Amino acid sequence: MLRKATYKLRVTRRESLHVHDEFDHQLMLVELEGTPLHYEVGVAGEFVSRRSVNFHDRTAGSGHMQGYAVTNFQYGSVYSKFEGDRDGKSKLTTGTWETYKGTGKLDNIKGKGTFKVTSGDQPGEFVLDMEGKYEL
Description:
By secondary structure, the protein is mainly beta.
């Protein structure tokens, strides 16, 4: 089943360390919480919460990132891992995601797809667009 969703993400915690091997090279650990802007209610019911933890390795705003997310619904949760790359000039992050665990009505979920993240209207705010295929 093909699904699409859009979330507003807000940074709730960010830790940053400079590597000092070249100008503006830093490692960041970022925690975000999300709320849906668009999603279709599925077998697990209404949206409850979304949290992700991401690791970024960036030089001048560009670089690789990876992380984990848990999205909780009324009757189950889905756990995903993802990785992608950010372009510092366009501030666009694109990548892939894949589920690795589900609970409740999402216990046997298998899914994977693509995502893009763009800057939001406020500092520390982003828009996540996801699409992919799920099987239960």
